[in-house]
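Student:
Attend to each token:
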Amino acid sequence: MPAVSVVICSYTEDRWDLLMSAVESVRGQSVPPEQTIVVVDYNMDLYKRLIFTVSDVVILENTGPKGLSGARNTGAAAATAGIVAFLDDDAQAAPDWLERLTALYDDHDVLAVGGRAVPVWEKGRPGYFAEELDWIVGCTHRGMPRVAAEVRNVIGANMSFRSEVLDVVGGFNTSLGRQNSLPLGCEETEICIRAVIGTPGARVVYEPAALVHHFVPAQRGTLNYMLRRAWSEGISKAQVSKIVGHKRALGPERRYVRQILPRAVFVGIRDRVQGKDPAGLGRAMTIIAVLAVTTCGYVRGRRLPAAPIDAESKQNGARPSWREVN
């Protein structure tokens, strides 16, 4: 198995217990990582508490722009292993998580491998929250492949990259991604697309057997949060489409909207009419509302100025492809 550096980014002491559980889940891996790195995003109290509490983990302050992308880049720059895996600070990895992720890197064309993120609801899944919408809470939604398969992008809570790939593409675009509690995103989508551009045969792979459990607080299950997140997702996707092109940015979304969501709406209405599930109609209506708000966010995002591209990422077109480097 290739050596792995695990990066966990955190920004608040409010998640202390969750962060400690995430670190502990990495300690218990069947294939131990070469190093575990925790990056603190501009929170000195959290940084000091970690320094005095955790001795077997590399503790770093974010040296890039504030936000999740900057913190991830800081962690990746400090990684010493050939594979860099990212785990959210509110997620716990299954014991064979790293073993499952790294097994696929025996194929030299595989640039990144992501796994499945299963929600752990603080107060139970709301009846109106369809599994097809689990992307809203950073988890794997229904409709994803059930076996290892090539995908456009990995999911942030559970992903890994060859360290050389992160270096070649210039890391995560810091103009994208979550900043504190602001629910922006799509930096994983953008970096995966940039990674495979210009490298025929290069692949990003989804391995559902590489499992993490992702904690979901009660407030993220509310309709208000769902619609806010949907709006932000639309804006984020619009920004990505300006950077990498409309077709590259929205390919899987077309299938999702044309096949997965209509089926989910139909099943929800059917279950309500047949008396199988009284919450079915609520799920169907919520799916329609989320789709509508996401679309409006995308239209709005297309009218906004394009997000700036990092100086490192901007040079990607002039850089050699992954295969030329290796």
User: Anything to note?
Assistant: Strands lie at 4-10, 35-40, 58-61, 83-88, 91-93, 110-121, 149-151, 158-162, 203-216. The two ends are 19 Å apart (CA to CA). The first strand starts at residue 4 and ends at 10.
